[in-house]
Amino acid sequence: MLCNSELRSFQHHLPEFGTSGIRLVAISVDPAETSQRHRQRMGYTFPFLSDPKAEVIRRYDLLHSGAGPKRQDISRPAEFLLNTSGIIQWRNLTEDAAVRARPQQVLKTFDEQSGKTVR
């Protein structure tokens, strides 16, 4: 399951993402039912996508083979900014949760790339 502290942080900043025109989406290898139950239980209001066969996760080179419970394949932590054509404009890949991108960093990067005044 996705990292709850990170998801809570992004949920807290959801209005700022919306104001900037950023659509926030989470994705994991968990089955859709599991992700949706978790999303509802935790009160997250942005979409959760499910990739149980890790097809998209592999395409973005994020597969962390055998790193999950019971040696299940999971996704490495990552954050992406894609433009409206689906082209990656920025990404943050890490194995260390302490250096994962925070909402403020994502918003600042978006502002810098779109020529807006930095927050």
Chain-wise SSE layout:
Layout: H1 4-12, H2 14-20, E1 26-28, H3 32-42, E2 48-50, H4 55-59, E3 63-64, E4 74-75, E5 78-82, E6 88-93, H5 103-114
Parallel strand pairs: 1-2
Antiparallel strand pairs: 3-4, 5-6
Explain what the structure shows.
37% of the residues lie in helices and 18% in strands. It has five helices and six strands. The longest helix is centred in the C-terminal third of the chain and has 12 residues, at 103-114. The protein is globular, with a radius of gyration of 14 Å. The mean pLDDT is 87.
First-to-last CA distance: 31 Å
Shape type = globular
Estimate percent helicity. 25-40%
CATH fold-level name: Glutaredoxin
Q: Can you tell me the CATH superfamily? A: Glutaredoxin
* H/I helix tally: 5
Percent of residues in β-strands: 15-25%
CATH architecture: 3-Layer(aba) Sandwich
Largest sheet: 2 strands, parallel
Backbone structural class: alpha+beta
- CATH domain class: Alpha Beta
Low-confidence stretches: none
- If you average the pLDDT, what whole number results? 87
Order of strands in the sheet with most strands: 1-2
How many domain units?
1
Count all strands and give the number. Answer: 6
From the alpha-carbon coordinates, what is the Rg to the nearest angstrom?
Answer: 14 Å
Element order: H for helix, E for strand: HHEHEHEEEEH
Highlighted features:
119 residues; alpha+beta; Glutaredoxin; two-stranded parallel ribbon; 5 helices
Describe what is shown at a glance.
By secondary structure, the protein is of the alpha+beta class.
